[in-house]
Specification:
homodimer; 547 residues; alpha+beta; eleven-stranded mixed beta sheet; five-stranded mixed beta sheet; 39% helix; globular; disordered N terminus
Chain lengths: 547, 547
Amino acid sequence: MVVLRLPSLSSLFSPSAAISRRFPEVLRSRHHVRRFSGVSAQSTAEKEASPETEPVRVAAQKDRIEDQSVTPRSQDFNAWYLDVIANAELADYGPVRGTMVIRPYGYAIWEAIQDYLNVKFKETGHSNMYFPQFIPYSFIEKEASHVEGFSPELALVTIGGGKELEEKLVVRPTSETIVNHMFTQWIHSYRDLPLMINQWANVTRWEMRTKPFVRTLEFLWQEGHTAHATPEEAEKEALQMIDVYTKFAYEQAAIPVITGRKSKVETFAGAVRTYTIEAMMGDRKALQAGTSHNLGQNFSRAFGTQFTDENGQRQHIWQTSWAVSTRFIGGIIMTHGDDAGLMLPPKIAPIQVVIIPIWKKADEKTGVLNAASSVTEVLKSANIKVKVDDSDQRTPGWKFNFWEMKGVPLRIEIGPRDVSSGSVVISRRDVPGKQGKVFGISMEPSILVAYVKDKLDEIQSSLLERATSYRDSNIVDVSSYDELKEAISQGKWARGPWSASDAEELRVKEETGATIRCFPFEQPQGMKTCLMTGDPAEEVALFAKSY
Amino acid sequence: MVVLRLPSLSSLFSPSAAISRRFPEVLRSRHHVRRFSGVSAQSTAEKEASPETEPVRVAAQKDRIEDQSVTPRSQDFNAWYLDVIANAELADYGPVRGTMVIRPYGYAIWEAIQDYLNVKFKETGHSNMYFPQFIPYSFIEKEASHVEGFSPELALVTIGGGKELEEKLVVRPTSETIVNHMFTQWIHSYRDLPLMINQWANVTRWEMRTKPFVRTLEFLWQEGHTAHATPEEAEKEALQMIDVYTKFAYEQAAIPVITGRKSKVETFAGAVRTYTIEAMMGDRKALQAGTSHNLGQNFSRAFGTQFTDENGQRQHIWQTSWAVSTRFIGGIIMTHGDDAGLMLPPKIAPIQVVIIPIWKKADEKTGVLNAASSVTEVLKSANIKVKVDDSDQRTPGWKFNFWEMKGVPLRIEIGPRDVSSGSVVISRRDVPGKQGKVFGISMEPSILVAYVKDKLDEIQSSLLERATSYRDSNIVDVSSYDELKEAISQGKWARGPWSASDAEELRVKEETGATIRCFPFEQPQGMKTCLMTGDPAEEVALFAKSY
């Protein structure tokens, strides 16, 4: 019996006691705005005496130390993750177990993902469309491995309009079945191929162990579905789309994923081959961040989706499907975040630059706010996403904390002395303290814009470099099962030659908790020997514990 | 017992026998590409003898007459509507009764609607976010009139992960209840207000009588939800958003909606006041195309959503909600379409200009295709949405029909003689035949771009003017119930002073089939007398039959 816990939020997102203990913290941090120092910028400033020492900035530093509210990442990674989600206002818990409300700031990251991928999908010849989310139960049963994979996770509608339905309806966990039902009606001849579509939609999987963004009962995603006349075309498409995801991960999200092929055991329910991008999180667990499946003719045979080829012969179509979901946001948080909170790559940051005007006396306020507003206009007209936080409610220090928590890549401070000198102070989110702070950047539009763009690029590269070196220093090349076990027990990823059986793969999982994340596309040259059996092996596999 | 009809598609979208009879037609027209003449442009052209008479264009005219496949609008409006949806490839029937697959061309219209509204919502201070679609059943029961309005239409999830749930889950029909549940956690003080959000989502209403786009079991929409500190602010917001919808209807969709307030009988379940935009379809039935609700404190009282005001007093928040759905696409089809198919206003057309290259001999092909491709580039770089149909599979005539069916505002034809003279032929979708066709428009980029932009503007205005004069010629001012009955029986809208009771309003509905669509914002001056009771009346009401 699944219990709906309403309105208590305890244990909504995790089964472990360690996490349950964290929930009072998470609940409290919902109100974190009230927990930070509530003195206004102006009144704090008025307390300061010396006009020489940039008093407000000093006060700001004090606030910061008092206001640390996120569990240190090193102390409890999962608690840190939940704290960041709450404090950066990314998401909240829905009333139904395992569901999530995506708050505006979290959703804006999703919109950035959508904006990029939508363009790439269209450039590669796909059209958006929309399929109904209710799928007749009988559809799910048509493809044998598909039903096996998904039936334990289904949410079923059994009542509609007050009456019990004759056939239960599945709330889509994925759309291959209904897509094939429609493709069968639309595809007649080779002239109708390739048929390449995508939909942005919500999907439902009745997961028992949930975690915001990473695994929720309902989530948002895009699912591409394509139909082709030949297996070669389908394979090319599946590879093309995993390449789109890989580029997105590296170039936009600054996540150095490892792209490769899933083992047979880990292949999608109904696919012939699954390609994946695997990302290393800050706790060194792997996150499967996107997949692309070559479905072969599995669904077309189950649904009778055929076309007449150029020789007049009836053939089953060859298909692919591929998806990226709101899980990716979890990947961004867990790749880049630190003890101060979220850290967003500039290319997907909803706000790239936050401007904090700082004033002491009432007669300084106008000048500072005017300068902030003119800097805002300058940056906006250069297509930089900028926000001014000019509220009277909070101290500059509170604001520094808050926008660091939200992961905004650059902060511009403008005080009375900056106004006099026609310059601003700029701080990098990714370089803490004095090292990341530069004084005296000219407000002159061309200089300022060039500087800001340059820094944003630098941060983007720097986040990728940092994540790449973290990843590489945590992957161990192994040549025996003992070495593999040692690496996994240290929390690292193990990479080694593998040609053993599915049973041996499952044994590794049972004994170490690690699974084959993928056979990476990038493979070392030369002869290899299976780490488990000593038999010749064609490829190295990557093993890791995963989300 | 609700019967799932699988995979038979008969009667999926309408209960009436007249429509059922139409379904073989609709089914057939799924394959309409195969029903049009299948001779290629080249081979048709080769059959022609005289090089002097623009032979392909003559052949094209012939094709057109043979290929009429849509039921004439005047003969059977509903059959025409379904034919257009099938032939213009806007939507198809899902496997579950009353569900709809939105095909790429239909979805592209939805994307145009989203693109415009999304900008306006953000400009007016709203953020996008996402709420879970599963709502505990108990939530729906909290607001008395809300449960009364929605409980007959609910789809309920009763099984999750193979187990029966303790509490049934409602698949959202609208989100006021879950929004209030979350607002209660987020809103504490007047500083948290206003809270203004929007979500793009799917919603489910178990409707018995369905019709593609107009009323489907599942549909796509946006739903805005806002919370305010005062009733005045909530009222202002509700009015602001109906104004956004009104402008969208007039300026983008070229639909001259009448904006006004709903009668008490027609107000949204749970609202204090509902504002609406009402559009007159080609059969003169009204379509409610968007609504904005002032919810007062109905939901905040039901859910205990309170804030502390500036004086430290606890108060319930004041709320609004507002929505536009994929129904609007039905409104566009039924406002502008004609016997040749869809007719799209340029501002929301996925393709504004289609280019048809026409060649006779193989040696002409290259020149014509090159010209088509250079014209395409010229228009694209001027941000005009353009498509070249250069397939060898179809005759120019077939293509003319096909793109007229799809409602593309402008067609550019380029033949060998056009290439020689450096000019093109341009035809307007909204002006049939020779009258809408202009020869010899120069290919010189600045001239061509200016001409095309000018014509697109002209078409945009012309569609609005035409719809406005159609609307105005079908609204009758009435001063007695007899006059009202007469107007309604002629299929027109009746406008007359009204201050009678809810019971009288329901009597009108029972006796004439018409309902009060709204009390229009635009009201005549002077003293008025209720058409039903003879009592003084403050306002005129608009009566019509509706979808």
